[in-house]
Specification:
The chain contains 15 helices and 25 strands. By secondary structure, it is an alpha/beta fold. It starts with 11 loop residues before the first helix and ends in a 9-residue tail after the last helix.
């Protein structure tokens, strides 16, 4: 027997219409690509999104077509999010930090018909355009009076929408399972793979992200998504903020510590989200100024695991530091590290240990650890296995390919090795491909990196396993010194010697000016492994 409730579709356009009806005067503040700040009410955001949808329809865009975006976090990009998905087409966000070859592959694979770009990326598209097979129109997301010169035919965004009415009717006959967004993974081997989000998955993920146990946003929240809108749909924040009525502050292209500090201080941002490298830059600016931005109370960090030393530095300044974990295939949020009330009395050291874990699964996600035969392992904090996930916003397949990310019993294999304890806290031991196997013993690169990051004068650290004639593999560590009082090899080795057992100590420390970072801000360990493959070949 079924319940007697209405069956109403969950659609992205419903988020926008709800926000315009309930929070019409709430602001979206944006630092534009051209420099000046813009301010827009949610009611005006709704109208401009409708105008863009009408304009895209006039250009011939039809249901299920893909419309690509290469843009920063700004007002026009937010309008595009809602216009493209709302009209029944697919919003394909692309990371400009991909290689040109990857971008060409992605756009051709997705068969994008229209491309919306910020003016910053005109030179990039000029180089790529001769290789793009399906793109019919390029629209530069700029004011009418700031349209840049382009070596290809391009439309101006504001001119394009100016001729359209704001009464575009969002299609009501969409199926909530229809595709709404498309984001390609940042894999280090082979071509990127497309993850195709549905309206249903996007709305459910946005509702989850707004919960008090996750982002905890409402009308009183001023939230700054520093995480780019081209990185897994900005972790769902553009949807969660409008669901809850929060004020959105968009940082544009200027993500250095000084620019972020000024913006956060001026708008009294109380919650911000981004990757660890961003918070290292802001930390340096806060130390330089001797204070935190006014109102700044908490941050959500993801993309890669933050070092405990970074967590402690923020907590010592009175800023709550919350780690989130997930991946492109998970929309992306899977777990959040938050101290439960019953653990509030734990020691500071224990609470720091908990905050450094990847946290507990959010509602809607099931997390388990599996052995090599896809059997469930116990949640005892000791058993290590492949971290796997299920849920309504987790990918079951990749776009345009027969390749499946699922295990034999239907779980998404995340590629991480982890433990789960009796309280539900997930601890990622390492990426499966980053574990170092030395003399039959497994060494976690994350454990060694975290200890190295606690050494004075170390800004970033990466541990890799390299071939060794006796032990098969041994760890070496590559460090990027801090600008002030930079660490050297001797200081790092002396620090680690007091923290790690001898067999875990790296065989060498390499100092580099800058670690190679990938498109999403993660250290490219594959690049480091290729560069240092023979580093210990002559070791005894």
């Amino acid at each position: 027997m079924h319940g007697l409730m209405m069956h109403d579709q969950l659609l992205v356009s419903d988020i926008l219409e709800h926000a315009a009806a309930v929070f019409p005067r709430q602001e979206v503040v944006s630092r534009s690509t051209e420099g000046p700040m813009t301010r827009l009410s949610i009611a005006a955001l709704r109208d401009r999104s409708a105008q863009l949808a009408a304009a895209l329809a006039r250009l011939g865009v039809r249901r299920h077509d893909r419309v690509g975006t290469i843009a920063w976090n700004n007002q026009r990009h937010l309008e595009a999010y809602y216009a493209i998905s709302g009209m029944g087409t697919v919003c394909h966000v692309m990371n400009p930090r991909y290689s040109p070859e990857q971008l060409v592959y992605i756009m051709n694979h997705a068969e994008d018909r229209v491309l919306l770009i910020d003016a910053t990326f005109v030179p990039l598209i000029a180089a790529l355009k001769p290789h793009l097979k399906s793109v019919e129109h390029v629209v530069v997301m700029a004011p009418s009076d700031a349209q840049p010169e382009t070596p290809f035919e391009a439309l101006n965004y504001d001119d394009l929408i100016a001729a359209e009415p704001a009464d575009f009717a969002w299609p009501s006959d969409l199926d909530e399972r229809d595709a709404a967004g498309l984001c390609y993974t940042s894999g280090t081997t082979g071509n990127p793979k497309g993850v195709l989000y549905s309206h249903r998955s996007t709305v459910l993920h946005g509702m989850m992200a707004a919960l008090p146990s996750v982002c905890g946003v409402d009308e009183s929240t001023v939230i700054l998504p520093v995480v780019p809108m081209f990185h897994v749909m900005a972790w769902g924040i553009p949807y969660a903020a409008l669901i809850a009525g929060a004020k959105l502050v968009m940082p544009g292209p200027r993500l250095d510590g000084a620019s972020l500090f000024e913006l956060m201080d001026a708008e009294k941002v109380d919650m911000a989200a981004g990757v660890p490298t961003i918070w290292l830059g802001l930390l340096g600016e806060m130390h330089k100024r001797g204070r935190t931005p006014e109102g700044f109370a908490r941050t959500l960090v993801g993309g890669s695991a933050p070092a405990p030393s970074l967590i402690k530095a923020y907590e010592d300044m009175g800023i709550a530091f919350q780690q989130g974990w997930g991946m492109t295939e998970m929309s992306p949020v899977g777990s959040i590290s938050k101290i439960p009330p019953q653990m509030a009395g734990e020691s500071d050291a224990r609470k720091l240990e908990l905050k450094a874990k990847q946290g507990r699964q959010v509602f809607g996600v099931k997390l388990e650890i599996l052995d090599d035969d896809d059997r469930l392992l116990p949640h005892d904090g000791e058993a290590r296995g492949r971290l796997c996930a299920k849920g309504p916003w987790i990918a079951s397949a990749y776009f345009g390919t027969d390749k499946s990310p699922l295990t034999s019993n239907g779980w998404l294999d995340t590629g991480d090795v982890a433990t789960i304890d009796a309280d539900g806290f997930v601890t990622i031991v390492d990426r499966a491909k980053d574990l170092v196997k030395s003399g039959g013993e497994w060494i976690s690169s994350i454990d060694v990196e975290n200890e190295a990051m606690a050494c004075a004068g170390v800004a970033m650290a990466a541990v890799i396993g390299v071939p060794h004639p006796k032990w098969d593999e041994r760890p070496i560590i590559i460090i990027q010194p801090a600008a002030e009082d930079p660490a050297d090899k001797d200081r790092v080795m002396a620090h680690l010697a007091g923290k790690l057992p001898k067999w875990m100590l790296p065989d060498d420390v390499i100092v580099t000016e800058a670690l190679p970072l990938g498109a999403t801000g993660k250290v490219q360990k594959n690049v480091l492994r290729d560069a240092h493959r023979d580093h210990l070949s002559g070791a005894a």
